[in-house]
Amino acid sequence: MLRRTLRSLITGVTVVTTFDAEGKPRGFTANSFTSVSLEPPLVLVCIAHRAGSFPAFRAARHFAINILSESQAEISQRFASPLPDKFAGIEYRDETDKAPLIAGSLAWLDCHRHDAVEAGDHLILIGEVTRLGHQDARPLGYCGGDYLRFDSLRPASPAGARAPAASSFTPDARHGGRNP
Ligand SMILES: Cc1cc2nc3c(=O)[nH]c(=O)nc-3n(C[C@H](O)[C@H](O)[C@H](O)COP(=O)(O)O)c2cc1C
């Protein structure tokens, strides 16, 4: 019931990557990615204890978040599977030597591990963003167990209004007051 309810939220799709102790690239598909803080710049992602790559991520001091573009649904499927070598045939770069950056991604964030918090059957990895980049492309979406593409990104704000930037909410607004 919880899983079915949570599937009604539209999210983007990311592949979280790192190098394990042997220097082998590791990665898993995740839509639990969330921004946490701007000062300092923090993001989080949750990894299941039962994931095959869990030991690698628990030990990792660095990881990268690759935000997928609409042409990368197959990459999402591949990294959501328990294949032994998910990176075979995948083009990636590792310019910082810290985590693989998957070619064709909409955006990437290189993270230094800030904290890791146990939460039920997942570990919350909190990363401080050290480098990032993005390209002009459309995002891959996910909702109700299906991938989504946004052939036209049309604003859905009420007529004449623009949604306030998420970071510009006043404390009042956050506590149920009037939006700025
Ligand atoms: C769209 C989507 C989102 C997912 N999000 C997460 C997530 O946030 N955390 C997680 O641990 N697994 C998530 N998964 C499942 C993992 O990708 C899957 O269990 C994968 O096999 C883990 O790889 P590993 O076993 O090689 O570590 C997601 C799968 C899909 C298709």
Automatic annotation (TrEMBL):
- The segment annotated Disordered runs over 158-180
Q: Name one GO molecular function term.
A: FMN binding
Keywords from UniProt, A to Z, are:
Oxidoreductase
Please list the residue ranges annotated as the Flavin reductase like domain: 6-149
Compositionally biased region (Low complexity): 158-168
Q: What is this protein called?
A: Flavin reductase like domain-containing protein
What superkingdom heads the lineage? Bacteria
Quote any Pfam family the record assigns. Flavin_Reduct
Q: Name one GO biological process term.
A: pyrimidine nucleobase catabolic process
Q: Which SUPFAM superfamilies match?
A: FMN-binding split barrel
